[in-house]
Amino acid sequence: MPLYRCPKCGRVVELPEGAYYCKVCGPSARMVEVVVSDKIQKILVSHDWVWVKIDGKWFETELRHDALYEPEQWVNEIIYIQRMNAEEFIEKYRPHELAKEYWGNAEKY
């Protein structure tokens, strides 16, 4: 979920995408979405591949453990990736960026 910040009081909250007003300052203060650049935004997982969205771009890499043969290690690896920041993920997994034509239409749904 994206982060939103109040321009008046600086309050930051995590909410689903949308338009929000600050509960502290009232309807005169519309919350502004905060862009966090070193955060993994979304993760899609198959039994042996992972797709990660960072800064609006999708990256793909192969997992070290396969869900079919090593389910416990696979789950632990997914949890580990979720806790990483973007820089750690790119350094450790060396993913390749997917072309916009590949994932562009999927973003609509």
Question: If you had to describe this structure to a student in words, what would you say it looks like?
Answer:
The chain is of the alpha+beta class and 109 residues long. It folds into 2 domains: 32 residues; 69 residues, no CATH class. It is built from 3 helices and 9 strands, in the order ββββββββααβα. The strands form 3 sheets. It has a 4-stranded antiparallel sheet with strand order 6-7-8-9, with no helix packed on it. The model has no long low-confidence stretch (mean pLDDT 85).
Observed structural traits:
109 residues; 23% helix; four-stranded antiparallel β-sheet; alpha+beta; 3 helices; 2 domains
- The poorly predicted ranges are none
Major sheet characteristics: 4 strands, antiparallel
Oligomer: single chain
Written as H for each helix and E for each strand, in order along the chain, the element string is EEEEEEEEHHEH
- Overall body shape: elongated
Share of β-strand residues:
25-35%
Estimate the mean pLDDT confidence. Answer: 85
When the domains are counted, the total is 2
Distance between the termini: 16 Å
Percent range of helical residues:
10-25%
As a whole number of angstroms, the C-alpha radius of gyration is 17 Å
How many β strands by DSSP? 9
Number of helices: 3
Strand order of the largest sheet: 6-7-8-9
Q: Helix- and strand-based class?
A: alpha+beta
